[in-house]
Amino acid sequence: MPHRVVVLALDGLLPFELGIPQRIFGLARSAEAGGRSGRKLYEVVTCSIRPPGPVHTDADFTITVGHGPEALATADTVVVPASYELGPVYNEGRLTDGLAAAFAYVRPGTRMVSICTGSYTLAAAGYLDGRPATTHWAHADHFQRIFPTVRVDPDVLFTDDGDVLTSAGVAAGIDLCLHIVRRDHGAAVANDVARRTVVPPHREGGQAQYIQRPVPDTRFATTTTARAWALARLERPILLRDMAQQESMSVRTFTRRFREEVGVSPVQWLTRQRVELARRLLESTDLSIDQVARDAGFGTSTSLRQHLQAALGVSPTVYRRTFRSAAGSPAAGSRF
């Protein structure tokens, strides 16, 4: 059976964010022999805290939701998008009676996910107590004041604490949902969804929410050429000065400009690209761990193991075993 995702639609919701789970999870298909898309991996259902009917949005239209709160009892994953009408949830950190009754349907062990200020709802319900979490950077200080026991990280795109995941604002919800697909079913499935939705296949959760120039200013030199050059030779040693030379910049200028555009340092970015390449090789090839380490630019299996452990919390062997089952696909809801 497909993994069931239930999206909780609250009054004042943002239509864009409501559509993210349906679009990302709804497109995920198992990879069949010959590269064909196979069965649906997720079933996405939208519900309200009231009986089926209209839900107000922050736009000039309402939506009709076909399920009431009892749908939450069937969820393997619950997603709570942002809402601008949270009332006491936002102002006092407590659930309304309707929300409390709705969350009573959620089964123990259900994976809980929030997009943007949907984190307020999860926090008010107690799911974030003592856990790492994020929200839109503009609300982070207020969120921390209202929920002092939550370990708020205002700088990241999303957080993953196993069965509870939170994202920053708007488009970071796409990153988080793609991350969940990747975690559940591997990079190949997530990359296919990204291609179909024409979005970047992977932005690391630790990437900064707000960077100085997310869209390069054409009046200034950018680091695009250097990044493309590095991606084409990840298996080789790449020095910072080599990347700077691609843009005819000093190392100092290049490093500053790179961080302004990408949100992380060149070394951090390069390591993440190599981790992603190693993941793809572990999932889709029978190369030895030593060969994967060389092809991904880590040089030795020891270095690969250290970086994969730091990024994902697992060894290369465990990662491969997770995604290279006898059936050729992982079990839904795999955890790292």
- Percent in helix: 40-55%
The helix-strand sequence is EHEEEEEEHHEHEHEEEHHHHHHHHH
Number of helical runs? 14
**Total number of beta strands:** 12
Shape: globular
What portion of residues belong to β-strands?
5-15%
- Please list the strands of the largest sheet in the order they lie side by side: 4-1-7-8-12-11
What is the structure about, briefly put?
Helix content is 41%, strand content 14%.
Secondary structure layout plus pairing:
Layout: E1 3-8, H1 15-27, E2 29-31, E3 37-40, E4 42-47, E5 53-56, E6 62-65, E7 77-80, H2 88-92, H3 97-103, E8 111-114, H4 118-124, E9 132-133, H5 140-146, E10 151-152, E11 158-160, E12 164-167, H6 172-185, H7 187-197, H8 224-231, H9 240-246, H10 251-262, H11 266-284, H12 289-295, H13 301-312, H14 316-323
Helix pairs in contact: 1-6, 1-7, 6-7, 8-9, 9-10, 11-12, 11-13, 12-13
Features:
disordered C terminus; six-stranded mixed beta sheet; 336 residues; alpha/beta; globular
Describe the structure.
With 336 residues, the chain is of the alpha/beta class. 41% of the residues lie in helices and 14% in strands. The protein has 14 helices and 12 strands. The protein has helices at residues 15-27, 88-92, 97-103, 118-124, 140-146, 172-185, 187-197, 224-231, 240-246, 251-262, 266-284, 289-295, 301-312, 316-323, and strands spanning 3-8, 29-31, 37-40, 42-47, 53-56, 62-65, 77-80, 111-114, 132-133, 151-152, 158-160, 164-167. The protein has a 6-stranded mixed sheet with strand order 4-1-7-8-12-11, sandwiched between helices. The chain has a two-stranded antiparallel ribbon with strand order 2-3. α8 (224-231) packs across α9 (240-246).
